[in-house]
Amino acid sequence: MGHFVAWANRHFGLRPGDRISCQLPLHFDGSLWDVFGALSAGAELHLLSRRRNLLPSTVAEFIRESRLTQWLTVPSVMTSMAGLDVVAQGDFPELRRVFWGGDVLSLPALRYWMARLPHVRFTNMYGPTETTIVSSCHTLATIPDGDAAAVPIGRPVPGKYFQVLDGDMRPARPGTVGDLHISGAGLTPGYWRDPALTEKSFVEWPPGSGTRWYRTGDLAREDGQGVFHFHGRADRQIKSSGHRIELDEVAAALRDLPGLKDIAVVSVPAPGAEGNRICAAYVPLPGSGPTPAQLRTALAAKLPQYMLPSQWRAYESLPLNANGKIDHLAVRQAFLNERIG
Hints:
By secondary structure, the chain is α/β, with parallel strands linked by helices.
């Protein structure tokens, strides 16, 4: 933890007089930088109460009243605040940086934030808990245009190392999607009193080298500039009607459709040879009410027929887990309950 905090404070210029929030729950490892980053830099730490964390409008009020200079949050909060339009043009004048992590932030929500706050730098942070807080980051130079792909997860933090391996544990060629492994500073020795899970999740590579790597379970690729791009979870790959489908690829296409505040894509078992059925949950923007038929038609312009969801469900807000991420298990259970009903 000390390695990351020291690097991040230097890299992002955290200094005495800065005002940092602690919005993330303390059991979420991202909160460690909020707490120890602020303390080690001599900055102010402003705690966000549970009551004020409930509504997008009260979160915005907290940022204004605390005069935050740095804010670390999760995509679900940024998406909700964008969807309800609680950020004014040029709002939060003392804010210099916004960081997000833990999930994918949709490009429409990101464009909203960057357009409203042109004085702020925006940074995507990536890193499993097993590698301590953050393993890589990517700061955007400009607002992504309409043809942009998802925001990269960036380059590894100094002292940490990424390797994309194929199914035979060989390095994947640049541009090829494979399994992301992480090594270096902050790598945990293993799971508390769970040697079986530790053995499954960590690997020595190359064999005999003595170097331990964590199997993240994430799919990624490295581009020609040494920047890494996230391509979803390996366990979010399904088979439907004979086709292998990345649910996160369906979700990425759905996020880019107009009229949606938030989305989640899951799968449920399908009878016969179909294998799995793709299901899409969505939250319409206020004043917008696209029907499943309209969404399916718009999505068909982006994806092949076999990748289109066959079940749809509208929500007022998607269920979240304790870390503020979309609770895909709860969404999946709702679709399963529909079928049972």
